[in-house]
Write a structure and sequence with these properties.
- With about 130 residues, the chain is mainly β.
- The protein has a single domain (about 1-130), classed as Porin (Beta Barrel), CATH 2.40.160.
- It has strands spanning about 1-10, 15-20, 30-45, 50-65, 70-85, 90-100, 120-130.
- The protein is elongated.
- The model has no long low-confidence stretch (mean pLDDT about 80).
């Protein structure tokens, strides 16, 4: 699940604050990851109502474990790539693939391990502009 609030300065640039919550899809003792983030978004308008965008920023990944008592927080770089289709001037459908670097390591089940192990999540969403 992803929630976003932000400001689009023009057709090419926006800044956003995101809040994501998801379950890891790998065999791990981490039961949930919360990910508040601050990002800048570059937008490339395409033909018709389509556009592509990229996001870069910083996220605080909060890992929660099976015992519900222990956790681990880590501030990490975030990247994302997406596509959007504008249905109207105020309503947009989106597809986003997003990940952080320094993500937990699948082999060790340890969030302190460095490196990139694939996507954090893929999101299909709706944007409303006012």
């Amino acid at each position: 699940m992803l929630g976003t609030a932000g400001y689009q300065f023009n057709q090419f640039f926006a800044t956003e604050v995101d809040a994501a919550s998801y379950h890891p899809t790998v065999d791990t003792n981490i039961t949930r990851i919360y990910q508040p983030a601050t990002v800048v978004k570059g937008i490339i308008p395409l033909m018709g109502n389509f556009s592509l965008y990229g996001k870069v920023g910083v996220a605080e990944n909060m890992y929660r474990y099976n015992d519900n008592e222990s956790s681990y927080n880590k501030i990490q770089p975030l990247v994302g790539l997406g596509a959007a289709y504008s249905v109207t001037q105020t309503f947009e459908l989106t597809l986003l693939a997003q990940s952080t670097f320094g993500h937990y390591n699948n082999n060790d089940n340890d969030p302190t391990q460095r490196g990139w192990n694939g996507l954090s999540f893929v999101d299909v969403g709706l944007n409303f502009y006012f």
